[in-house]
Write a structure and sequence with these properties.
The chain is an alpha/beta fold. It has ten helices and 14 strands. It is globular. It binds S-adenosylmethionine and iron/sulfur cluster. Iron/sulfur cluster (SF4) binds near residues 27, 30, 34, 74 and 327.
Length: about 325
């Protein structure tokens, strides 16, 4: 039996080849747009997919045409045993790309493990370049730790290193130019993510569109030239300043839908497959898995999730609604 036997195509003719796995709902930060200060109610250990279950799911997903997996959280690097799990996952036949989204707090100590597992593409969420503002946004004083991890990753040859920034009006919009300068001086991909009305209620008034961010950048640093899309590109539109060492990316889920190119499914830490981050549907995978079902039955669950993918999310336009799931349980 070959590793890949199927291709997943949804009802709108989109090929689904990308799975994002949330390893845990737990996190060592409390970002103001993601979690309340006291944290969210935690899943029980027994409700979280075990590593052997995740590996089985990943093998089935590969058979169905998934060739890219991203690990996320909560904070993926806080999960016990992750240092053994990641190399096992990354060594599965049929995966072209395994990557990680992390808040960077534990990055430095995991770089050697990631590198030897062959993972070179990492995304680090970094909403401020100033210690005090970082502490205000994440509620923890870890800026230096995160920055040290990013610099060490750069020095060890990780590439690309993508820095994800959620710009919020009145909170870190005064740092847009500092981030722009960073993309000129350093080989980082600086990506601005529009704040999404998901989970917490408090982030709605902070929304600032990427068009506004782009104008600030262009007014200060000159024109942005488009970078041609690569095979591992997601929804970011990519640009470069003339002479810049890094890149600027915009992920504009709210102001510009990229749903027509959506190629992904998400797996939550407690084993739900989500057809769409920004809609409320989900399909239970853990239940059948723990009832001892066959691979064929799990394939049916995947197909159900793919068939349930909506044409587009509901966060745009007049009928905008708020998605009630928690970002920390889904992984962004
Ligand atoms: N803890 C890891 C991290 O922060 O990178 C991984 C999980 S986190 C939920 C994944 C991404 O979702 C982060 O880049 C974070 O900035 C983003 N995120 C969380 N809540 C968001 C929101 N309401 N709007 C936009 N992005 C959000
Ligand atoms: Fe934790 Fe990431 Fe959410 Fe921040 S965005 S609280 S780092 S899960």
């Amino acid at each position: 039996m070959s590793d890949r036997e199927m291709v997943l195509i949804d009802r709108y003719n989109r090929r689904i080849n990308y799975l994002r796995i949330s390893l845990t709902d737990r996190c060592n930060l409390r970002c103001i747009y993601c979690m309340p200060p006291e944290g969210e109610r935690k899943l029980r250990h027994k409700d979280i997919l075990r590593y052997e279950e995740l590996l089985r799911i990943a093998r089935i997903a590969i058979k169905m045409g998934i060739n890219k997996i991203r690990l996320t959280g909560g904070e993926p690097l806080v999960r016990k045993g992750v240092g053994e799990f990641i190399p096992m996952l990354a060594s599965l036949d049929g995966l072209d790309d395994v990557s990680l989204t992390t808040n960077g707090v534990l990055l430095r100590d995991n770089l050697a493990m990631l590198k030897s597992a062959g993972i070179t593409r990492i995304n680090v969420s970094l909403d401020s370049l100033k210690g005090l503002n970082f502490k205000y946004i994440t509620r923890f004083d870890y800026f230096n730790k995160v920055w040290e991890g990013i610099e060490k990753a750069r020095d060890m040859g990780f590439s690309p290193i993508k820095l994800n920034i959620v710009i919020m009006r009145g909170i870190n919009d005064n740092e847009v130019l500092d981030f722009g300068r960073l993309a000129i001086e350093q080989p980082f991909h600086v990506r601005f993510i529009e704040c999404m009305p998901i989970g917490l209620q408090s982030n709605a008034s902070a929304f600032i569109s990427n068009a506004e961010v782009e104008k600030l950048l262009v007014d200060r640093f000159g024109p942005l030239a488009a970078v041609s899309p690569g095979k591992n590109d997601g929804p970011a539109t990519r640009f470069r300043f003339e002479g810049g060492r890094g890149e600027i990316g915009f992920i504009s889920a709210i102001s510009h839908s990229f749903c027509h190119t959506c190629n992904r499914l998400r797996l939550t830490a407690d084993g739900k497959l989500l057809p769409c981050l920004l809609s409320d549907g989900e399909v239970d995978l853990k239940g059948p898995l723990r009832r001892g079902c066959l691979d064929e039955d799990l394939i049916e669950v995947f197909l159900e999730a793919v068939n349930a993918k909506p044409q587009h999310h509901l966060l745009q336009g007049e009928n905008q609604h708020r998605v009630h799931r928690k970002m920390c349980a889904v992984g962004g």
